Amino acid sequence: MTVDEAALKERARAFLADHDPAAMEPLDFLRARFDAGLAWVHFPEGLGGLGAPRGLQSVVEQELADTPQTDIGKLTIGLGMAAPTILIFGTEEQKERFLRPLWTGEEIWCQLFSEPGAGSDLATLATRAVRDGDEWVVDGQKVWTSGAHHSRWAILVARTDPDVPKHRGLTYFVCDMRAPGVEVRPLRQITGEAEFNEVFLTGVRLPDSLRLGEVGDGWRVAQTTLMNERVAIGGSPVRRGGGVIGLVADTWRRRPEIRTHALHQRLLQLWVETEVTRLAGVRLREQLAAGAPGPEGSGMKLAFARLNQALSGLDVEMRREEGLAYDDWSFRRSDTVDFFGRGPGYRYLRAKGNSIEGGTSEILRNIIAERVLGLPSEPRVDKNVPWKDLPR
């Protein structure tokens, strides 16, 4: 089926004519929208899409702007990381089982990648998956798992062959977070809340039907997830003057008594850098319309982290005593990152994690240097050493 902008508008309006959001439960409306191919239009028919160009998604969003929407905050990992990976590597049964409730928000997803001894160097992970007939028995520990406390499923990378070099002995799974042996413990952050978790896996039995990709091909599958993750974190569409720069500029406009020449120069510089980054994001999303995300997404995520930290710091500084106040340090299991509903103190502290989550800024600089700029790679003496022989 050929879908252009006019046809997509007509389809969205016909859908609204047949599905009055005011007369339907929000979940029923979202399910119907998925079934109509108006969830993510670039996905295949029958899987929430129409096989249309990715760039036409904005047409649907405009037509359905005042209707029930998915909770992006809770669904970031599912929508931005799990879904693209399942689409590429999943079986037809896996796609049909997981994609619809993932998009509607009926099932939340988390990411079981990082470990206490395998963060920046993910390929050294030690969580083991041992085959037992038609099942895999998983033992290990994961850390910094956002949203694990309310997740139904997880994307999991585990080591299935310790006798080969670290990148070659990994396999990718979907993990049932309700399976016996899965234990989630909160990690309290500098903001006071526990958005992250550590997850212990003890004798967790996963059927082979929950494996994504071939045995031993987990690193290649994980690269698809990671490339999409960095675009999801750093490449989200933002209007000009939107995001954190909008909050800082608003403070500047409302508080003439704080204005100094030095602060003005810093604000102008950050405004220009933010606009350059926003336009680079527009170009990146146009490239995505023609194919899968590549290492360029690492540049967007790197810029996002640096700007968020600089802007939140400037915001606190401009607000003076008000900026030092903190709204709520009570411990709670948060559902999402609330940069715009919380105060400047929260934004300043939470932004510190932006240069760690989704790949540290140091690792992203290596990726940009090697895969984007074509510079010589760093020496890696462990590249061909069996994982079991690596010092730990």
Outline the structure in words.
The protein has helices at 5-18, 26-35, 57-63, 72-89, 92-104, 218-234, 244-254, 261-288, 296-319, 321-324, 344-350, 361-372; strands at 109-112, 128-132, 135-143, 153-159, 170-176, 182-187, 196-207, 211-212. The protein has 392 residues and is an alpha+beta fold. The mean pLDDT is 91.
Main structural class? alpha+beta
Walk across the major sheet and give the strand order: 1-4-5-8
Q: How many strands, what sense, and barrel or not for the largest sheet?
A: 4 strands, mixed
Question: How much helicity do the residues have?
Answer: 40-55%
SS element count, helices: 12
User: Rg from C-alpha positions?
Assistant: 22 Å
Q: Give the terminus-to-terminus CA distance.
A: 54 Å
Name the beta content range: 5-15%
Average predicted local confidence, pLDDT: 91
| Low confidence ranges | none
List SSEs in N-to-C order.
HHHHHEEEEEEEEHHHHHHH
The total strand number stands at 8
The coarse overall form would be globular
List its salient traits:
four-stranded antiparallel β-sheet; 392 residues; alpha+beta; single chain; globular; 13% strand
Task: Quickly describe the structure.
The protein is of the alpha+beta class. Helices cover 42% and strands 13% of the residues.
Topology, element by element:
Elements: H1 5-18, H2 26-35, H3 57-63, H4 72-89, H5 92-104, E1 109-112, E2 128-132, E3 135-143, E4 153-159, E5 170-176, E6 182-187, E7 196-207, E8 211-212, H6 218-234, H7 244-254, H8 261-288, H9 296-319, H10 321-324, H11 344-350, H12 361-372
Parallel strand pairs: 1-4
Antiparallel strand pairs: 2-3, 3-7, 4-5, 5-8, 6-7
Helix pairs in contact: 2-5, 4-5, 4-6, 6-9, 7-9, 8-9, 9-11, 9-12
